[in-house]
Write a structure and sequence with these properties.
Blueprint lengths: L12 H26 L14 H10 L5 E5 L3 H7 L3 H8 L23 E5 L5 H14 L6 E6 L6 H12 L4 E7 L2 E2 L2 E2 L20 E5 L3 H16 L5 E6 L17 H9 L2 H11 L5 H23 L23
Helix pairs in contact: 1-2, 1-3, 1-9, 1-10, 2-3, 2-7, 4-10, 5-6
The structure holds thiamine diphosphate and magnesium ion.
Thiamine diphosphate binds next to β3 and β5.
């Protein structure tokens, strides 16, 4: 595992600030939604991403706006860091017309093509072949954009993961497979679902580069995604990145986490990537302690403003039930 403990190199200040801003925004959104659900303010659920922000920040900062992203039910952090406006994201989670799909998609089905977020899926592993198709489309259109897909450790045991890896490798497509290895699939620890030490080794079966990196270090993720994008854009084919992290909250809202050894959870919380990165940036002179606090408060304010706007918008009207569901086939020969 590569762990960078060095101060940010000269010129990296801007990236450091961007990474930290993205991390705080993702955490503020996750925390506020959980708070609202816990106190009965919102009758919805989410699959918390708290603890996994460094991956989303590194990925979002390294990708271009037109690069495609496919993620999962746990991917609110990925979408925030790729640039989905908070109002559109929260609007979808809360089922209001302010949402990216006018409140008809919900957390499991968010799409915001303006910033390259094409699909969120609740079907484990199902995003992988879709990302492969998006990369094939980029090639056919003569674009050098890449397609990234986020999924969990558990998803790497599915057939669709291996089918997608195989096709991407066979056709040398510009796909970045980003495994957010949070060490659990629902309530099951990774050691009970696979007989390998590293998910990254699964790349060997498809003759593609596979790297295991510290998913709690946003700069390590940024670096790895930048290299993988460069490889993809220049015709070097796909890359598998295993980003090792931890899921601080339960699988779902209200999960009592009885299956998780308390000492494992408290060790992970003690290594929380957000204070860890804040400390590193302050030590490197990129941020002052006051600026870090201001950024965190700014993130919380932005989230609250988005929630206020969303709550002021209505739920979708029943007359919209079939609107936007089918393509307009006018002019297309049968
Ligand atoms: C095809 C499929 N099988 C089973 C499920 C039920 N399920 C939902 S989340 C989950 C665990 C996925 O674990 P992982 O891929 O590690 O992602 P994480 O939730 O940890 O981010 C399972 C089995 C599902 N949604 N889809
Ligand atoms: Mg997992």
């Amino acid at each position: 595992m590569t762990t960078s403990t060095k101060a940010a190199p000269p010129g990296a200040e801007e990236v450091g600030r961007e990474l930290y801003t993205k991390m705080t925004l993702a955490a503020a959104c996750d925390e506020r939604l959980r708070q609202g659900i816990a106190r009965g303010e919102f009758a919805v659920t989410i699959w918390p991403s708290r603890g996994q922000e460094a991956i989303a920040a590194g990925l979002g900062a390294a990708l271009r706006k037109d690069d495609r992203l496919v993620t999962t039910y746990r991917g609110l952090h990925d979408m925030i860091c790729k640039g989905v406006p908070l109002k559109e994201l929260i609007g979808e989670v809360l089922g209001r017309t302010a949402g990216a799909s006018r409140g008809k998609g919900g957390t499991m089905h968010i799409t915001c093509p303006e910033v390259g977020v094409m699909l969120t899926t609740g079907i484990v592993g199902a995003g992988v072949p879709v990302a492969v198709g998006l990369a094939l489309a980029a090639r056919q259109e003569g674009s050098d954009r890449v397609a990234a897909v986020c999924f969990g450790d558990g998803a790497t045991n599915t057939g669709s993961f291996h089918e997608g890896m195989n096709l991407a490798s066979t056709w040398q497509l510009p796909v970045i497979f980003v495994c957010q290895n949070n060490l659990f699939a629902e309530m099951t620890p990774i050691a009970e679902t696979m007989h390998i030490d590293k998910v990254a080794d699964r790349a060997l079966a498809h003759a593609m580069p596979g790297y295991r990196i510290d998913g709690n270090d946003p700069e390590a993720v940024y670096q790895a995604v930048s290299e993988a994008s460069e490889r993809g854009r220049s015709g070097g084919g796909p890359t598998l990145l295993e980003c090792v992290t931890f899921r601080f909250k339960g699988h779902y809202m209200g999960d009592p986490q009885r299956y998780m050894p308390p000492e494992q959870l408290s060790a992970a919380e003690a290594a929380d990537p957000i204070p860890r990165y804040r400390h590193r940036l302050i030590g490197a002179g990129v941020l002052t302690a006051d600026e870090a606090v201001e950024l965190e408060q700014w993130s919380s304010r932005l989230v609250q403003e988005a929630i206020d706007e969303v709550l002021a918008s209505p739920g979708p009207d029943p007359s919209e039930l079939e609107v936007d569901f089918f393509a307009d086939m006018k002019g297309i020969p049968a």
